[in-house]
Amino acid sequence: MGLAEAFAEAGISDLVIRQYNGTELIGDIKREVFLRPDTRFPQGLILPQWKVEDILRTKLRTFGIEVETGTELTSFGQDGDYIIKQRICQSFRKRPAYVCHKT
């Protein structure tokens, strides 16, 4: 899906690992120690949850998919070329809605 690049760009990867003996700082280990030639993203990454969700929602929109919050998926099934789902809106406690999507 091409998400790794978006996550790497939005996050913080310049991390230092600290070693302690109890409460005594022994030293720092720079990320260069852990570099691996077999991956483009060898370092750790700090990324807030809201940024992860924003990146995922943006990517899903490119496929015509909108994320629905405050809803519960109560059932789903397939009928020929269509996926049928039933959901309940928790925010307003509306009656179940049936939505069909062509597969």
From TrEMBL:
GO molecular function, one term: FAD binding
Coiled coil: none
Pfam families reported for this sequence: FAD_binding_3
Domain of life: Bacteria
Membrane-spanning parts: none
InterPro entries the record matches: FAD-bd, FAD/NAD-bd_sf
Annotated ranges, domain FAD-binding: 2-82
Record-given protein name: FAD-binding domain-containing protein
Originating species: Chitinophaga agrisoli
